[in-house]
């Protein structure tokens, strides 16, 4: 009987201790916050912020429809991912998309084009790797990375796009896709190396430097490069921020810089590009010809171009 009583007393003391700790924590949480929700509901309020943080992941896997999402739906993303990772081009019969909706321009035909009739160069191959699925269960997927060879999809010689046809060194473009503009500073060296080596492996492809300038890693990949010149003239400016023909000619002499692109506007960034000073290290400052540790604001247009006539 005494042992039973001792156990009951121990449990009660433990519960009382938990209650005391709970009230102490609640007191300090309420006292130290100025947020009304957290002050009135210290625990549920924090649960709300937790749910807000994990909300995008839940919507991505559970609630979003396969064809929802901008700019790419889950269906688009998975199609590209499976093709790259598993080399799988097989799609299930039927579709979840509404092909009769406005915007679709592909329609069934009684006499479709045969594969061998496509105007595409499939003669070149690249060695790579792919994943082979051995077993796919409810909670796991057993897969193995194996060697693989794939054909490059390139334009035929007559269909190749020529950039600077009348220039001394025209660029004949056989690839269909390249890496779009992303500035060094917004992304790091590893991304540039990965996309650059990938573009070179793809054949006929290219990478765009973005307005952050050309760094050694761009050139090291050996990929074709489109060097972008933005309103901030980063990498092409003198000490006063004006356009430097000398800096431009230095880049033009690089053999794998095949073209220059002028970035006339900033897209959705109404007031222009922005890079916090704490991110502007010595390398970024050197490449962009700005001061280390100083916040960079790129204008939303070139200051010396006020209309279409000025661009000519």
TrEMBL record:
InterPro entries xref list: Aldolase_TIM (IPR013785), Glu_synthdom (IPR002932)
Keywords: Membrane, Transmembrane, Transmembrane helix
Glutamate synthase domain span: 140-306
Transmembrane intervals: 6-29
UniProt GO MF annotations: glutamate synthase activity
Gene3D superfamilies found in the cross-reference section: Aldolase class I
One GO-annotated biological process of the protein: glutamate biosynthetic process
Keyword hit for Repeat: no
Pfam families registered for this protein in UniProt: Glu_synthase
Stretch forming the signal peptide: none
The family this protein is said to belong to: Belongs to the glutamate synthase family.
Protein name (record): FMN-binding glutamate synthase family protein
Source species of the chain: Bacillus cereus
